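Worked example 2:
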Amino acid sequence: MTRVPQDKQRIERATRESQTIIALEREAREAKTARLREQRLSQPAVTAKSGMSALKSGGRKAARKPMDVK
């Protein structure tokens, strides 16, 4: 069985291009992470109790009544 000749220049070029794209995506992801971290740290800190009380509603939810199927 004969082997198919591989185009080594084409493979190397594709590898270089893919590595370039991966590096650009990583750089963009790290920049976004840094931006979001700065945004999060610039907001005032919320304590656990005041944060929970802000999320809770005033009372219990009313229980659902079963429907009568006739």
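Helices lie at 8-42, 48-55. The mean pLDDT is 82.
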